[in-house]
Amino acid sequence: MLDTLTLQTATSNSGLLIIIYTMFVAFLLSVTLGITYIKTFRGLSYSRTYVQAVILSSIVAATVVHAIGDSLARGLGMIGALAIIRFRTSFKDPRDILFMFSALAAGIGCGVGAYNVAVIGTFGFVLTALLLHVTPLGQAGTFDGMLRFNITTDDGSRHALEALLKKYCKTFVLITLREMQQGERLDYAYHVKMKKNRESAGLIKEMPEKIPSVRGLGLMLQETTVEL
């Protein structure tokens, strides 16, 4: 790790070198966090802009902390300036918040010159995230995705639905059920886990054949993420 003191005494442009070095280390650490987030992502919708925000936030944090330095007046002025900004972005997954905080921590560590702390802390976070990804810790049960549709309320449709789900799904759990069109139709949402010898495309293809009244059919799988 390059010593800050060496930069300060090695050249007349030491201030510029320290800034470049700080931004470079912050960038490398945030990119490592972004790649780790992508590799360990298990959600139903992937956001490219969030990964970019993780990378950029580390550089912003390093810039702000480096600009403040040891000046109390700068710190108070920066607090006043940042108080004007209102961040209203909501995180659907607590894990997303932790990745953002980790990027900010790496940037702050680089900004104050604690490069060893920033590097060791970031790689400790990355290794822990990868370990949790490959181990079943915290997994009470896994599903392949969510099946959503609406059908008429007659008994024939419900019997055909149950037979299809048993045919294609290893397990299925009803998560929401609501009435539509004054009780003439029912809207279903299931968490499903497909059987190994059954393809999800077969379920989507056979469902309209067995249940002609089905509408709004959609199967969102975890493996097939949608970029927002």
Short description:
This protein is an alpha+beta fold.
Topology readout:
Layout: H1 4-10, H2 14-39, E1 45-46, H3 48-68, H4 72-83, H5 94-111, H6 115-134, E2 145-152, H7 155-168, E3 169-180, E4 185-194, H8 200-210, E5 215-221, E6 226-227
Parallel strand pairs: 1-6
Antiparallel strand pairs: 2-4, 2-5, 3-4
Helix pairs in contact: 1-2, 2-3, 2-5, 2-6, 3-5, 5-6, 7-8
Number of helices: 8
Strand share of the residues? 15-25%
Described by strand count, sense and barrel closure, the largest sheet is: 4 strands, antiparallel
For the largest beta sheet, what order do the strands appear in spatially? 3-4-2-5
- What is the CA-CA span between the terminal residues? 38 Å
Q: Give the overall form.
A: elongated
Structural class: alpha+beta
| Sequence of secondary-structure elements | HHEHHHHEHEEHEE
Number of domain units? 2
Task: Please state the CA-atom Rg, rounded to the nearest Å.
Answer: 26 Å
Helical residues, percent: 55-70%
Residue ranges: pLDDT <50 for 5 or more in a row? 5-12, 224-228
The averaged pLDDT comes out at: 80
The number of strands is 6
